[in-house]
């Protein structure tokens, strides 16, 4: 009788171990298959263009961003803004270590006041929650490129 009980116990344990190991392997296989199935190329846009809607969003997505952010204060009626904003998007879009935030001055009066924006376009560069550079107006292409290079780490501060 004891032999039967021992054999039954071993048989049950083998079945449980087998069930447990199948259960463990099954999700791993599923995960591996998912990874293989989802092997698609990454998106073309590497950064985030942040369309700031309010102060809270500005704090969360600009001031608390791990990456540096170039903030473009603009207005729909501003002709120089219509030149600068697309240029900033074009230059920043391929970068994965720099974000662009766009703030409409008509919709964000508090931010305009906080950052003392007196004219548009106004651009500030934010890194680790601090303003590290800025310019006002439509500046030459070299100044824009230098700011982007500096913020993205391509050029060191000189």
TrEMBL record:
It holds the Pfam family Thioredoxin. Residues 31-153 form the Thioredoxin domain. One of its GO terms (cellular component) is mitochondrion. GO terms for biological process: cell redox homeostasis. Belongs to the thioredoxin family. This is Thioredoxin, mitochondrial isoform X1. The lineage of its organism: Eukaryota, Metazoa, Ecdysozoa, Arthropoda, Hexapoda.
């Amino acid at each position: 009788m004891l032999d039967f009980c021992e054999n039954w116990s071993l048989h049950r344990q083998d079945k449980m171990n087998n069930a447990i190991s199948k259960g463990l392997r099954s999700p791993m296989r599923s995960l591996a298959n998912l990874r293989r199935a989802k092997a698609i190329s990454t998106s073309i846009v590497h950064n985030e263009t942040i369309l700031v809607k309010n102060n809270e969003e500005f704090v969360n997505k600009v001031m608390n961003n791990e990456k540096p952010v170039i903030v473009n204060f603009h207005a729909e009626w501003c002709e120089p803004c219509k030149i600068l904003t697309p240029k900033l998007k074009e230059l920043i879009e391929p970068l994965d270590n720099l974000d662009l935030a766009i703030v409409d001055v008509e919709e964000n009066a508090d931010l305009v006041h906080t950052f003392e924006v007196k004219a548009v376009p106004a651009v500030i560069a934010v890194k680790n929650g601090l303003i590290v550079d800025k310019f006002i107006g439509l500046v030459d292409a070299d100044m824009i490129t230098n700011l982007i290079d500096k913020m993205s780490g391509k050029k060191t501060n000189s």
